[in-house]
Amino acid sequence: MHISVHKKIRIGFFIAFTVIVGASILSYLIAKNLMHNAERLNHAVEVSKRLEQITKQLKDAEAAIRGYNITKEQKFLQPSMNERSVKIERDYRALRRITDEPTQIRNLDTLKRLLDVKYSQLAGGEQAGIKGSRISVGEGEVSMDKIDKKVSEMIKIEQAQLDEKSRLFQFFSSLWIPVVFIISLIAILIGVYAYVTLTREFRLQLHIEHRMKVYQRELQENIALLNKTNQELEQFAYVASHDLQEPLRKISTFSDRLQMKYRNELPDEAGQLIDRMVAAVSRMRVLINDLLIFSRAGRMMPENIAPVDMNALLQDVIGDLDVSLQEKKGSVLYDQLPVIEGNDTAFHQLFQNLLSNSIKFASPSKPLEVRIRRELLSGRETGVMKEDKWEDTFCRITIEDNGIGFDQAYAERIFLIFQRLHGVSEYKGTGIGLAICKKIVDAHHGHIAAFGQPGNGATFVIILPLRQLREE
């Protein structure tokens, strides 16, 4: 299965975009986890530090009480036990604010009760003096052991959390580098692939443009050569046809003199041969005239283009064919036609050939009826015009008769030169008339088509633009 370059590029960029988005999400999650672990590490360190600080202050207070009871020096009571208790309570409250784990909160509640007891002991020891020193020391040691045990328990919990967060921190830290490396590698590979693909596509585009320029130049040369050849062929056809007229005139003249001078002396068979020769000369003259018309039909010079009143032109054509129409008891009905830009002579030839075709192939069993309709429509609505002419206005002219018709299988063939559907003995003609019609319509940037059914008449559809482009 072949995948186009553009599709490969789109797929590559889609994969790169997906990788970048996925990497961004993964990086965000890893970074978030790292920050969370770092916060928990700081929290564990802070809790342990404050617990140790509270324990140290309690031990310092106990040591001060003992020193005072032994020496009676006031310096051991500076600062006082009440001030020391306030400072310890302040540290406890700070510790309470930063603690959010339920187990540790319960431990802090227990520690608070032990601290309250300890505060009372410190205050009592400060006032008792030497007399109650033994009791105060003993009770203080028991209370301090409980506090040390609770603090050690809380520090152990924080240390366990600290170890767990340290492992997670190390895991995500170690994961971060490979992830970044792999993502960067994928991005680099996709970038290299896109660069190579785009470079190949760019070079291919340059090659195609170069070949297109070469083909365009060759095409222009071929068109120029073809135009020159067509002109030479048209000139040759015109000269050849014109030169053929002279021998035909001599044959016709000599045959007429032969008939007039020796008609009665010639045998009947010789007279018949002369008649056949005269008929052949007549057909040859018609054929040469039609070839001359065909060679000129495609010539469209800008100076010959002008607005043509199609109604007046059609009346002239009907007038020229009046005798033939009367012979077929025919009638022509037509809608009001618009003014169309084009060659007046070519349009006259077009309608004369089409109406002559209807007269020639009229049904012998009924009077001929020809109906001409018209319809204005856009190029898009015609269904046959190129996209660059969709906005232009066209006139669709339909010529419909009730003649003998034809098989639709021959609808394209009848517009080819020298193509006949009937023998010369059945219907006179050269097989050039409809070819001339197509050449005229093509020269006016139009379209012609035929539709028929044996015994039910024929319909010719002509589509012509109302305006001709002068630059063409």
Automatic annotation (TrEMBL):
Coiled-coil region list: 44-71
Ranges that cross the membrane: 12-31, 175-196
Q: Does the keyword Protein transport apply?
A: no
Which InterPro entries does this chain map to?
CHASE3, HATPase_C_sf, HATPase_dom, His_kinase_dom, HisK_dim/P_dom, HisK_dim/P_sf, Sensor_kinase/Photoreceptor, Sig_transdc_His_kin-like_C
Reactions performed catalytically? ATP + protein L-histidine = ADP + protein N-phospho-L-histidine
For the keyword Phosphoprotein, the answer is yes
Domain of life, per UniProt, equals Bacteria
Which residue range or ranges hold the Histidine kinase domain? 239-468
- Looking at its record, which EC class is this enzyme? transferase
| A Pfam family this chain is assigned to | HATPase_c
User: EC?
Assistant: 2.7.13.3
Q: Which UniProt keywords apply?
A: Coiled coil, Kinase, Membrane, Phosphoprotein, Transferase, Transmembrane, Transmembrane helix
PANTHER family named among the record's database cross-references: PAC DOMAIN-CONTAINING PROTEIN, PHYTOCHROME-LIKE PROTEIN CPH1
Q: What name does this protein carry?
A: histidine kinase
